[in-house]
Amino acid sequence: MKNSSSTNTNLVLLFKSPNNSKRRLAKQIGNIATNAASLLLECALQDVSDWQGPSWFSPASPADQAWLNCRLGDSARIVSQKAGNLGERINQVDQTLRSQGIKKIMYIGADCPGLNLVYLNDAAAQLEKHDVVLGPSLDGGVVLMGSRHAWPALGDLQWSTDRLRDDLAKTCKESGWKPTHLQPLYDIDSASDLLTALTDLESTERATRSNLVNWISQNMDIIQDKKRLRV
Fold first, then answer.
1. How do beta strands 10-15 and 55-59 pair?
2. Mean pLDDT, to the nearest integer, of 157-175?
3. Which phi and psi angles does 145 have, rounded to 5°?
């Protein structure tokens, strides 16, 4: 049975293709970061596939859209990002979707393998009762952000820092909205995050997560060596 709050909530995946992402991780583990990015993106694609409501793919560049076209064909609904920092790009995507009459929108990225349908459904349910729902990440960012209203200007927020979650919550409150927060999850930005995923997903039955776990296990020597170098 479909979740009624999910069927009228649009899910948007903001992404870059594997070759264009995970540069911070690459500084620690080298070229195999591209393999990690590919596996993480497959996890996110599964989340979108599992979603029971409308879904969109938002590539960061034409090259990222070309990757998606090769992966999924021309059946995916695309809302492209434009120039600017991440906050400005989200504002642009949000404006495009809301101009089509879409009201409840949730944004996710491609670096949180801890996401699952239960978590996404909970977020959609919270949007029935709150203006904004935030999925905090353990590093101070967010893994999910959803709203029933057009987002205020996000360009000046401290993106990619441990201040982002607090900045985003403050911006919402200044707009007269009361945000609600979900359970904190982790995202993958470092070698130590990969080790967290290995433990967290050890008993998973989802194929994309199992593939990620197997890859981490197979590359443990490289990941741990680079982690020691960072320390």
1. parallel
2. 87
3. -140, 125
Pair 90, 154: CB distance under 8 Å: yes
| CB distance 123 to 115 below 8 Å | no
Fold of 4-186: Spore Coat Polysaccharide Biosynthesis Protein SpsA; Chain A (3.90.550)
Quick check: 224 and 198 in contact, CB under 8 A? Answer: no
What's the CA gap between 203 and 196, in Å, rounded? 13
Token pair 């996401």 is at which residue? 115
Q: Residues 105-159: pLDDT tens digits?
A: 999 999 999 999 999 999 999 999 999 999 999 988 899 999 999 999 998 888 8
pTM value is 0.93
β-pair partners for 108: 13, 144
Region for 2 from its dihedrals, namely left if φ exceeds 0, alpha if ψ lies in -120 to 50, beta otherwise:
beta
Task: Determine the number of helices (DSSP H) and then strands (DSSP E) in the chain.
Answer: 10, 6
Q: Are 70 and 23 in contact (CB under 8 A)?
A: no
Lowest mean pLDDT among 135-149, 160-174, 200-214: 160-174
Reported as a single tens digit per residue, the pLDDT across 2-52 is: 566 668 899 999 999 999 998 899 999 999 999 999 999 999 999 999 999
Q: How far apart are CA 95 and CA 107, in angstroms?
A: 13
Residues 164 and 231: their CA atoms lie apart, in Å, by 24
